[in-house]
Amino acid sequence: MSKAKVYSVPAEVANYALLTREQYARMYRRSLEEPESFSAEQAEEFLTWFRKLDRVSNNDLTQGQIRWFEGGELNVS
Predict the structure, then answer these.
(1) Is the pTM of this model over 0.90?
(2) What are the sequence ranges of the domains in the chain?
(3) Which of 4, 36, 57, 60 could lock onto 65 through a cystine, CB 3.0 to 4.6 A?
């Protein structure tokens, strides 16, 4: 099996990043540990809603049902 090469991010590129590696790791961990509240907060902060959602998620993997942001209507095209 071959080893993948890993390249460092140049400082001039990293300076434009919106998050540090540590901030990203915290957000990622929270998205796994608290998916409902994390997703609700992100949706509220970064999406424009015509109508607010009624429910963040409604999932039943045994039935193959996966729904996000039920009742909400987004301002996207």
Answers:
(1) no
(2) 11-74
(3) 60
